[in-house]
Design a protein that fits this description.
single chain; alpha+beta; conserved putative lor/sdh protein from methanococcus maripaludis s2 fold; Elongation Factor Tu (Ef-tu), domain 3; 4 domains; 7-stranded antiparallel β-sheet; 6-stranded antiparallel beta barrel; rod-shaped
């Protein structure tokens, strides 16, 4: 019963679209009223635009006051198309609807993933600055986060009793001319990250320096500045960080369904809203092993050269990633596919002016083409415009066939039962005659 209701519902929907198609036929020029193959042929009958069951053998008016439409005999090929759930449309109407077709072909699909990403620091080249001894920040040369720092520039001056005592031990070893003590005390100073220049100057002047200046180990951008002058710091305190910007990372987000198309080393092109005319090139450097728990996307890391400094952390970027090449399969224009919640269909253009909607199994998609894994063959002509109207008409005819099929089966079963009853009567009569 539920199946019957669904069929009836589809027939009602198809009838409404069929009425719209008939109305479109009515509004066309008189040339469309002529037979599809030979304009000298006579119409087979006239039908009401809004009621296929109202037929007459001559022109006239429908019960709704509309002119009847002539219907011509279809060629054998068209009748076959209609019998298999297809529809036939006259060539004049095909031209007016601007129907376009394209052949299905076997080829390899080349696709890409378009997504977004954000510029980030190269985490492998971020240096965190710590003091190796307890003490107080006497002088702070790096005043604010975001400022540029060159390698060798002073960062801060530290007063540390531990470093002062280490200097005194070094000077004592020098006065005693004890080589072992000199090497030991010098090594202790280097443990506190005291550079060789400071140690040479200390050996020359023989004066203990109360405040020791520390310098930048690399060039970059200063960020995470956590200290000010007068702060007391310990070895576990992160004073600041320096990140290099001559090379940056871009982290893009890829949907789960696209993760299987990614591979390390794939070419990537990047565009920024601030410079839409420029394209940055890079490659996929790393594919993270886990999805983001909030966005359900897979992070992908891209390494980019940035000698000009145009790429800045937290910039938003449009990303296009080349995917793995797909296997050779049947391709059709993407516009030809009618996608629904339950199935995907295309409309085939049959020989003789017929059209039929068929269910297909859809594969990968890109901006231009759709991959068809089953349902059609290479060389089939698929409709790429006005296919929704044809699909609706074809579905209506298929619904009529499904509705009539059980009735035919019932007639066949009834006849078969009649034959079986006759055979049983004949057998019973034969047995009775044998017993006599």
């Amino acid at each position: 019963m539920k199946t019957f209701n669904r069929v009836v519902a589809s027939l009602v929907a198809g009838g409404l679209i069929g009425a719209a198609l008939n109305a479109l036929l009515l509004n066309n020029t008189s040339e469309q009223m002529l037979p599809p193959n030979n304009k000298a042929d006579k119409p087979a009958y006239w039908v009401a635009p809004m009621d296929d069951n109202y037929r007459r053998d001559k022109p006239g008016k429908s019960p709704m006051g509309m002119d009847l439409i002539p219907v011509y005999s279809e060629p054998a090929s068209n009748a076959k198309a209609t019998a298999t759930g297809g529809v036939f449309i006259s060539p004049a109407l095909v031209n007016n609807l601007a129907l376009r077709t394209a052949p299905a072909r076997r080829d390899r699909m080349h696709s890409s993933i378009r997504t977004v990403g954000y510029v980030q620091y190269d985490e492998e080249r971020i240096v965190h600055i710590h003091s190796r001894a307890e003490g107080w920040i006497e002088t702070l040369y790096a005043r604010s986060s975001g400022s540029s720092i060159e390698k060798g520039e002073p960062l801060y001056g530290l007063y540390s009793p531990e470093i002062v005592n280490a200097q005194k031990e070094f000077l004592l070893a020098l006065r005693n001319n004890n080589q072992q003590l000199i090497e030991a005390s010098e090594s202790r100073l280097k443990v506190f990250h005291i550079d060789d220049k400071f140690i040479r100057q200390l050996a020359q002047d023989r004066q203990v320096q109360r405040t020791v200046t520390f310098y930048a180990p690399q060039s970059g951008i200063l960020h995470n500045l956590n200290i000010r002058e007068g702060f007391f710091v310990k070895p576990e305190t992160t004073l600041m960080s320096i990140a290099a910007l001559d090379e940056v990372w871009l982290e893009a987000q890829v949907f789960q369904r696209q993760a299987g198309d990614l591979n390390t080393g794939a070419a990537v092109s990047i565009r920024l809203d601030s410079k839409p005319e420029k394209i940055w090139r890079g490659v996929v450097d790393y594919i993270y092993p886990n999805l983001d728990a909030v966005t359900r996307t897979l992070p992908v890391r891209i390494r980019l050269a940035n000698s000009s400094g145009e790429l800045k952390p937290n910039m938003f970027a449009q990303v296009e990633i080349e995917t793995k090449p797909h296997d050779i399969n049947i391709l059709v224009p993407k516009d030809a596919v009618i996608r629904t919640a339950t199935e995907n269909r295309v409309v085939l253009a049959l020989s003789g002016g017929g059209f039929k909607s068929v269910v297909v199994e859809l594969g990968h998609l890109n901006d231009q083409f759709a991959e068809i894994r089953s349902g059609i063959e290479a060389g089939d002509q698929v409709v790429i415009s006005a296919q929704f109207l044809l699909d609706s008409e074809s579905s209506k005819h298929s619904g009529l066939m499904q509705l009539s099929a059980p009735e035919a089966a019932a007639v066949i079963d009834h006849k078969a039962m009649d034959h079986k009853a006759i055979d049983h009567k004949a057998m019973d009569h034969s047995q009775m005659h044998h017993q006599e």
